[in-house]
Amino acid sequence: MFRFVRIFKPKSKKKKILLIVLSIVTILMIAGDWALSVMVYNENFNLRFESYEPLTPHVDDFDGLQRTKYEFRSDKGQKLAGYLYQSGEDQHGIIVMAHGFGGGGHSSYMDCANYFASHGYYVFSYDATGNDESEGEGVGGLPQGVIDLDHAITFVEESGNFPNLPIALFGHSWGGYSVCSVLTYHPEVKAVIACSGFNASASLFEAEGKKQAGNGIYLMLPFVKLHEKIRYGKYASNTAMDGFAKSNAAIKIVHSFDDEVVPVEYGYDIYYEKYRDDSRFSFVPLENKGHNYFNDETYRNAFHSELDAWLQTLDYNYHAEENRERFSEDKASYIYQHLDQEKWYHSLNLELFGDFVDFYDAHM
């Protein structure tokens, strides 16, 4: 018996060593994939964004528009800059606007704020964490948009600085996701318009990742979701669909079927499948409008063509690192001299926004 045990003991020991080695390798591979996933996520989303000043509108560009600046704090105590826009009198609601991702803060949506303000609404718009006038070294991640909006709504409702009027929400892209998801925490909101939004925080990472890594992106997604859960807690797993389920708000979903930034299967299709027969939902499918469709692009496209032609006249390599500052100054100078601000800042799709105002009027 003892001889039998001695004969097989070395094999058992080798097997244990092999299992230990495989376990270590597996753990290292998982840790490596996790670290890589977080690194890629941060490189894409934990960035700071500033509006491009030469193309940024100002309140003086809109006749009769007034704004008052406020500061409020978000989840980690960071100060966010917000503005109350108004034009005229007899406003019958407050629209809280959430901006998109990557272009800086709320300023690029000032024409939207102006339209709503001139049609009977106060508009409270703000720069999310890591954008323009708000604090934060970077955005951090997409759930931060929901967190900031949660704090913005609470500030409007509880600070005592604003009239006691019904609250509505308006958001585009990242903001479109945020205005739907935040309904979980603010079921008192009366109406929501979500444009080009997505259902879950990881959706944008998945959509963009598939373009670059194909199905390999699905190896990263579990770690991205875990990273968001650790960092943002309940906000990370809360989706637009969760928000809809917690709310009785009227919802308008707008999306173009050719959107390559947020494909319809990550938002519109999901919502339509469940709520197409629900009377509190209205769906606006668009064709060949892309991700941004608030403006008539005729003049903007023409100006970009003129800018491209100007680039060809430069007598230096504007891609070279040593010419970066010179090119930045030259480009800004060209825009300031040649941009028709009236055409650039006043190109809103009036039919679309007229429909938006009718929607708010019906539900506020």
TrEMBL record:
Residues 91-199 form the Serine aminopeptidase S33 domain. Transmembrane segments: none annotated. The keyword Aminoacyl-tRNA synthetase does not apply. It comes from the Bacteria. SUPFAM superfamilies: alpha/beta-Hydrolases. GO terms for molecular function: carboxylic ester hydrolase activity. Pfam families: Hydrolase_4 (PF12146). Keywords: Hydrolase. InterPro entries: AB_hydrolase_fold (IPR029058), FrsA_esterase (IPR050261), Hydrolase_4 (IPR022742). This is Serine aminopeptidase S33 domain-containing protein. The lineage of its organism: Bacteria, Bacillati, Bacillota, Clostridia, Eubacteriales.
